[in-house]
Write a structure and sequence with these properties.
Elements (H helix, E strand, L loop, with lengths): L3 E6 L3 H12 L28 E8 L9 H4 L22 E3 L29 H8 L3 E4 L6 H14 L2 E4 L9 H9 L3 E3 L9 H14 L3 E11 L2 H5 L7 H12 L11 E8 L6 E11 L5 E11 H21 L4 E2 L1 H7 L9 H13 L5
Parallel strand pairs: 1-2, 1-4, 2-3, 4-5, 5-6, 6-11, 7-8
Antiparallel strand pairs: 7-9, 9-10
């Protein structure tokens, strides 16, 4: 199979975990083959292995990354992801290009130490369309900060102009927006989104427990999910004005598992606070209050601790390969099965076990999307 040529917008922790993971699963790493299925939902997806993914272009706005080799940039500050043991990234031929800033940077970020936040490069933005065309990229992965509405739409427009697929890993609604989805459908360009899930993270655990309550006849009366972390994603989200789509995305992911959705006052799901020393570690505090047989109460409390960025990379690596399968098959528009399985706010909310089966059928060619 040929390489899957991807471009990345936002060379942050998620991008770092993804490319380190690709190298981890590469055959022959450190003289032996890594365990094929360790930490992967699919090792072979439609004939494509993790190592078939190749980064051919990258965009960022930080002066410590712009102009650097890609393998150097993904390890530069303010990235704080834990390095994968025994993985050394090969020298990349890709230079990180200056992306358009637009609304990709929140004003409050400048009030924090430089090693914790962005330091915007004093450079003219590159011609994104030209860079993508020259690189031969087939797929653009969007890892921009939460709240980057204009910047995300800018990259989506370029994808429509160039015929490049768009995988939207952050909560600006493109693939789940009917107007944008129609445009990708008309151009016959496959796209996946919006807002990537973790393999086993706060949202997926909350969804599964919600469905468990529902399937077992338990009435949920109220619930919350509070998250803390110390990476730039959590720092960025201290600006609450950038959180609207994020809260909608996370809340809809959980509400969709209920027969009767809760009133707004009885459900709170979203980031809680930024704790610098947590770095890329994310801690979720989850509480569910409900009633069971004869109205007797049931209360559930859970604490989940995960490394945030590697957790999302486990979903991104499948989304990328499924997107390439769709391109091979000349399928255009939103990919419903893989979006529902790997994204919080897909075009159609489908229970996770059902979405998993639909992805299997898509890979086998018996489910069109």
């Amino acid at each position: 199979m040929s390489k899957i040529r991807v471009a990345i917008a936002g060379v942050g922790n998620c991008a770092s975990s993804l490319v380190q993971g690709i190298e981890y699963y590469r055959s022959g790493t450190n003289g032996h083959k890594q365990e094929e299925h360790l930490g992967l939902m699919n090792y072979d997806l439609g004939g494509y292995l993790p190592e078939d993914i190749e980064v051919v272009a990258a965009f960022d706005i930080d002066k410590r990354k712009v102009g650097e080799r890609f393998d150097v940039a993904v390890m530069a500050k303010p990235n704080c992801v834990l390095p994968i043991y025994n993985v050394t990234l090969p020298k990349s031929k890709v230079k990180v290009e200056m992306g358009p800033v637009l609304d990709g940077l929140s004003e409050h970020m400048k009030d924090f130490p430089a090693d914790r936040t962005f330091a915007v490069a004093n450079k003219k933005p590159a011609n994104v369309e030209k860079v993508l065309r020259d690189s031969g990229a087939e797929i653009l992965i969007n890892y921009l900060p939460v709240g980057s509405q204009q910047a995300t739409e800018n990259y989506a427009e370029v994808c429509l102009k160039t015929g490049i697929s768009f995988i939207n890993c952050m909560p600006v609604f493109i693939v789940s927006n009917q107007e944008w989805a129609k445009r990708f459908e008309q151009k016959r360009i496959p796209c996946i989104g919006d807002d990537i899930k973790s393999q086993v993270g706060a949202t997926i655990v909350h969804r599964v427990l919600t469905k468990l309550f529902n399937d077992r006849g338990m009435q949920i009366d109220r619930t919350y999910q509070l998250n803390t972390g110390g990476n730039t994603d959590f720092l960025n989200m201290l600006n609450r004005t950038r959180l609207l789509s994020k809260k909608i995305s996370k809340t809809a992911a959980v509400q969709s598992q209920m027969t009767v959705p809760l009133e707004d006052e009885n459900i709170h799901i979203g980031p809680s606070d930024y704790v610098p020393w947590q770095n890329d570690n994310k801690v979720c505090y989850l509480r569910m209050e409900g009633r069971g047989f004869a109205g007797f109460p049931i209360n559930l409390e859970l604490r989940l601790s995960v490394e945030d960025s590697p957790n999302s990379a486990g979903c991104a690596i499948d989304a990328i390969r499924a997107c390439r399968v769709a391109r091979d098959r000349k399928i255009g528009g939103p990919l419903i099965s893989i979006s529902s399985y790997t994204m919080k706010h897909p075009p159609k909310q489908i229970p996770d076990t059902e979405a998993k089966e639909l992805v299997k059928k898509f890979i086998q060619g018996t489910c069109p999307r």
